[in-house]
Amino acid sequence: MKVDRGMDGDGSFTTSxxxxxxxxxxxxxxxxxxxxxxxxxxxxxxxxxxxxxHEEFLGGExxxxxxxxxxxxxxxxxxxxxxxxxxxxxxAREWRDAERRLKFxxxxxxxxELCRLAAKPNDQGKxxxxxxxxxxxxxxxxxxxGTVVLRLDGWHARFTFPRKGPVFLKQKSVDLRGxxxxxxxxxxxxxxxxxxxxxxxxxxxxxxxxxxxxxxSGLGTLYRIDDVVRAGDRVMAVYSDYHFNPRVDEIGDKxxxxxxxxxxxxxxxxx
Length: 271
Fold this sequence. Notes:
The chain is an alpha+beta fold. The protein has 2 domains: 4-87, no CATH class; 108-270, Thrombin, subunit H, CATH 2.40.10. 21% of the residues lie in helices and 41% in strands. The chain is built from 7 helices and 19 strands. It has helices at residues 54-58, 63-70, 72-83, 89-106, 113-119, 167-170, 214-217; strands at 4-8, 13-21, 24-30, 34-40, 48-53, 123-124, 132-133, 139-145, 148-153, 156-160, 171-175, 182-186, 189-193, 197-201, 206-209, 223-231, 234-241, 254-260, 264-270. The strands form 4 sheets. The chain has a 5-stranded antiparallel β-sheet with strand order 1-2-3-4-5. A 5-stranded antiparallel β-sheet has the order 6-16-17-18-19, covered by helices on one side. Helix 2 packs across helix 3. The chain is elongated. The termini are far apart.
């Protein structure tokens, strides 16, 4: 059977294999932690795959199935790459990055009280998502803080101020870092969850963003902030693990980050 191969890094090890059988495409990708094995018929809707951790694969899991789809020669190539994964430059970089991210998370104090407070919040940002229906049938998210109105549409935010004069004095538009999923207003601040957390004042100025923390923490990509909740005066960003990496017990697949405007992230708790 004809199999196309892809090399990684310096070309010493094959890390991807694809094979065409009629309309069906079979594929294998070896990553730093696991192997993705699947197939599709040309569309995302027809794609089906599983992820096999390296240690399970080396223990014999799914080896027969991979040999059936790709042949025994490919199985031996996959085994070689996994057994020598420490020699693949991309994998080594990812492991170093993972160590750096874990160091960041461990530097944040754990406060179990956050989980209890977040379970019964006084306010939740997701409750307002797309809460306004427009005349054309589309939806926007709206929240008010005093006399200032914030409306969000996808990746865009629009502040409306109670001023007289031309439109540019009454409104201010800001591009968000991601597609918003929640917004909460508290004490002259707007907290927007858009994979990151962004905090604006009532003048539309960005006061805080986790974008700058993405490289060291994985927030925004590996761990996406999709909600923001408030218990009393304590405001917490809610993050979810999007499983680009195996679950890290110290971080969890869902958790809460307490935000302080003067100090940034001051505490965490994973559910």
